[in-house]
Amino acid sequence: RAVAVAQAARFSQVCRIYAPMYPQLTLAAIAKPSQITLGSALNAYSGVASAFGNYMTHYNHGRGVVFIGHSQGAMMLTVLLKYQVDPNPGTRRLLVSALLLGGNVTVPIGKSVGGDFANIPACSSGTQTGCVVAYSSFDTTPPAGSAFGRVGTAINLLGRGSGASLQILCVNPAAPGGGTAALEPYFPAPGLSRFLGSAAGAPTIATAFVTYSNQYAAHCVTSGGATWLQIDRTAGTSDVLPTVSAVEAPTWGLHLVDVNIALGNLVDLVRTEAAAFH
After folding, report:
1. Which of 15, 45, 46, 71 is the most exposed place for a label (fewest CB within 10 A)?
2. What confidence score (pLDDT) does residue 122 get?
3. What are the phi and psi torsion angles at 166 (to 5°)?
4. CA-to-CA distance for 259 and 101, rounded, in angstroms?
C-alpha cells in the first residue's frame, strides 16, 4: 500500500486510480531470477490479468486507459499488453499510454516499435497516445551484469526470445521527443530515507510529499550495449539537499527511484496525453 501511495497516488490529479493487489514474487526471488519457476511467475501474472479483466468488465465503461507499473509490475503489464492489448485493435484503441518503468521493455536496436510489442510504439511527444514510456534510471553507465538496461543480463520474469538484435527501451518522461530536460521529483515524506538513503533524514514538514526543484535533469543514453535514462545532479556543489544514489546494488542503478525521480513529469505527461486522447 505504501508503494501504491508513493508511485500511484499523484496520478489521481489526472486519472481515476485502480491499484489492485496481486501475489507478487518476493524480493528474495527477484534477487535470483534464474531460480524462479514458471509456475510462480504465472501465479503473479494471473493476479494481474484477473484484475484487468475485472476492471474492464465492471469499471472501464469505454474510457481510455493508462497502464502504470514499476519493476515487477511493469514486467507483468508488459506481458498483459503483449497478449491482451497489442494484438487486439478494439482494446488497443483505449490505450492512452503505458508507463512501464524499470521493467526492461525491449525494442529492436534503433527502432521505436517491435521487440515486446508489435503495434505499440515508444512515445515520442507529450500528445502522442497509444504508446509506451519505458526506462531504467542510472547515474552512471550500467555495469556489466546489470539487472536493468542491458538485454543480456536484464531481469525478465516470464522470458523472451534472443536479445541479440534488441535493446532496452528508453523514453525520457521529461522530453519524450529526445534531449535533456529538468526532472520534477516527488517523494513521499514518510520513510524518505528508503528512497534517498540515510542522508535524507526525516523532513519536519506536514505535507505528504517532498519535491526537489531544479535539482536533477535526465536524458537517454545508448552506449556500450546498454540503454538507460541518465540522471544528473544539476544543483551546485554547495546545495545541501540529499542526492539520489544506488540504495540497492550497483547493478540495479537508481531502480528504487525510477518512478519518483520523474513523478511530476509523468503526471504532466499523462495530463497532456489524456487531453489529446479521443
Report:
1. 46
2. 98
3. -115, 160
4. 7
